[in-house]
């Protein structure tokens, strides 16, 4: 394929370098990643440093007690690993326990939805197994940002402003941190989190004076078996928190839950498409829906339809509906649920399913494949939206010149999810809200089980080596937008930046992953930059159209590696300029 820098939609170019590339949700995190690479670290060192910095810089999108699923390619191993980055439910969390509390759907705020927070252990696991630097080198940049402060961004300001009444009335520790003078800091004001800086200092000190592996173990022990774990649990199990059920609850987590947690390396889901091997996390994530969509779309000539024509958008949207229907009926933690991935990704199954796509009419039904007796799966309960405030997600991708690559989707532990823990500077996450309370559902709540998450990094190989590390924030839209990026770049020859900037569309046709897990059959959100005649034609096919402002969807980031004409690696990166902009740098 001819190398093209493309045009500068949104005022941004694709960036190029020979030594490393980083794309992340904040310019300082991307700069920290490049700094680590310049200092002799590899892609995994850079990812840990940038990832923990993102938790400081974007506490409305990811937090220190959140989740961070990863796909990692260590050049020495020559294979892709899925790194779980996803915590389990407490041992006391059962459907029966929720029913005794009168809970019909796990709320998205408070403490009932708290799972074991996996993010810190997973970053230490990545550093220990694949990194080269010590704990201090990768944690000190984030500590400096927390202690010295950073400029308040517009998106963080608005998130704090939305939550300010609740902080004042219910969450005094959150008010003390995020409303330092009684009001949200203005955009551009210096914002500091000294308590989180102190927590990072404790972790650095615990790892001092030993080698990298022992340091990672020591810091992990402090967080999950030591003083930090006890502080978290003392607060979350002692102080009831009002949540979206209208009641106050404490957490079900225990020190035994924390102590038992270990990140794992797993085989990713994978699918061969258009000369690429596209890999995703297993079906404890929604990741395989992107692979299923690619398999379905093999039955159609998308290039002949033309980019973002009515027939193209209709076909892609209908394929996603079928893939997400299978997600609802078959995806769950493989340690607890039999998810038939081999059959779901079989080309003959995809060909059969693709025949369900009617080019003249949008489906208004949820149509999973027929591997199981569907009557066993009850519909998700209809729950009124109540107090819960949603958070968001951010993205991190890193590739280095040695061929190491990592794609991370980091989220949870939001400032909107639960109160800040006094003295620690961060709240617990509420990923448990994604569990179903229907006993026969593949994603039903069970002790020690991981809830099926929306978090879904992507790593594509070409000729057996990393080619694209990519993905998007956006809940159930993450793989819809990541799919559109991949089609834009690989089928329509757009540059990385053009592929990201191109107008997007998404659906909420299936039951949502977040509380209260409602569906909007036939919905199709489209950016208003899509041609008006195309939108009218989509409406005539039965799509229930909602028009979004320009540059409002698909906040994608990506890093790419190719071999240039001189035989040396050429790395590139791009990031979305949308409402909560991401930033790409290369060296």
What does this structure look like?
This protein has 587 residues and is α+β, with helices and mostly antiparallel strands. It has a domain at 39-66 and 83-265 and 413-434. The chain contains 19 helices and 21 strands. The chain has helices spanning 27-38, 43-57, 95-100, 119-130, 135-148, 154-169, 172-178, 194-206, 212-225, 227-238, 255-260, 288-297, 302-305, 310-330, 341-344, 347-354, 478-490, 496-501, 532-540, and strands at 15-17, 20-24, 70-73, 81-83, 150-151, 190-191, 241-242, 248-249, 265-266, 269-273, 276-280, 393-400, 405-411, 458-462, 465-471, 505-506, 523-527, 544-548, 557-563, 569-575, 583-586. Strands 1-20-19-15-14-11-10 form a 7-stranded antiparallel β-sheet. Strands 9-4-3-13-12-2-21 form a 7-stranded antiparallel β-sheet. The protein has a 3-stranded mixed β-sheet with strand order 16-17-18, covered by helices on one side. Strand 10 and strand 11 form a beta hairpin. Helix 2 (43-57) packs parallel to helix 5.
């Amino acid at each position: 394929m001819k190398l093209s820098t493309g045009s500068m939609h949104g005022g941004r170019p694709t960036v190029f370098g020979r030594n490393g590339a980083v794309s992340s949700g904040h310019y300082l995190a991307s700069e920290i990643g490049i700094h680590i690479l310049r200092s002799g670290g590899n892609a995994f060192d850079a990812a840990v440093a940038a990832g923990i910095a993102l938790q400081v810089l974007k506490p409305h999108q990811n937090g220190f007690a959140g989740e961070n699923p990863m796909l990692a390619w260590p050049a020495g191993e020559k294979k892709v690993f899925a790194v779980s980055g996803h915590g389990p439910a407490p041992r006391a969390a059962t459907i029966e326990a929720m029913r005794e509390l009168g809970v019909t759907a796990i709320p998205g705020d408070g403490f009932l939805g708290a799972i074991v927070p996996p993010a810190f252990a997973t970053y230490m696991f990545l550093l220990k197994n694949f990194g080269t630097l010590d704990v201090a080198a990768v944690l000190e940049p984030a500590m400096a940002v927390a202690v010295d402060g950073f400029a308040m961004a517009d998106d963080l300001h608005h998130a704090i402003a939305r939550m300010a009444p609740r902080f004042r009335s219910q969450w005094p520790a959150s008010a003390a941190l995020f409303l330092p003078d009684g009001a949200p800091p203005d955009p551009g004001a210096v914002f500091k989190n000294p308590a989180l800086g102190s927590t990072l200092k404790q972790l650095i000190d615990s790892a001092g004076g030993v080698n990298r592996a022992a340091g990672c173990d020591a810091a992990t022990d402090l967080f999950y078996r030591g003083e930090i774990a006890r502080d978290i649990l003392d607060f979350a199990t002692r102080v009831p928190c009002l949540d979206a059920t209208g009641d106050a609850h404490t957490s079900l987590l225990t020190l035994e839950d924390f102590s038992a947690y270990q990140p794992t390396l797993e085989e990713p889901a994978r699918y061969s498409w258009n000369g690429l091997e596209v890999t995703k996390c297993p079906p404890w994530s929604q990741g395989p829906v992107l692979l299923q969509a690619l398999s379905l779309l093999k039955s159609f000539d998308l290039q002949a339809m033309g980019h973002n024509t009515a027939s193209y958008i209709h076909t892609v949207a209908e394929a996603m509906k079928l893939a997400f229907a299978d997600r609802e009926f078959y995806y769950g933690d493989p340690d607890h649920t039999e998810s038939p991935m081999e059959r779901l990704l079989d080309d003959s199954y995809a060909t059969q399913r693709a025949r369900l796509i009617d080019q003249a009419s949008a489906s208004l039904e949820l149509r999973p494949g027929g591997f199981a007796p569907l009557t066993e799966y009850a519909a998700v309960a209809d729950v009124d939206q109540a107090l819960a405030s949603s958070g968001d997600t951010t993205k991190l991708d890193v590739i280095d010149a040695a061929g190491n690559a990592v794609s991370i989707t980091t989220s949870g532990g939001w400032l909107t999810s639960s109160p800040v823990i006094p003295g620690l500077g961060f709240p617990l996450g509420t990923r448990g809200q994604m569990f179903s309370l229907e006993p026969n559902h593949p994603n039903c709540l069970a002790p020690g089980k991981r809830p099926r998450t929306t978090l879904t990094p992507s790593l594509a190989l070409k000729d057996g080596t990393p080619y694209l590390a990519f993905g998007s924030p956006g809940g159930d839209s993450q793989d819809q937008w990541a799919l559109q990026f991949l089609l834009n770049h690989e089928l329509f020859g757009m540059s990385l930046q053009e592929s990201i900037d191109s107008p997007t569309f998404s659906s909420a046709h299936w039951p949502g992953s977040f509380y209260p897990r409602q569906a909007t059959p036939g919905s199709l959100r489209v950016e208003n930059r899509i041609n008006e005649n195309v939108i009218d034609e989509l409406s005539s096919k039965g799509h229930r159209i909602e028009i979004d402002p320009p540059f409002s969807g698909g906040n994608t980031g990506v890093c790419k590696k190719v071999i240039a004409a001189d035989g040396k690696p050429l790395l590139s990166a791009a990031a979305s300029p949308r409402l909560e902009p991401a930033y790409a740098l290369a060296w």
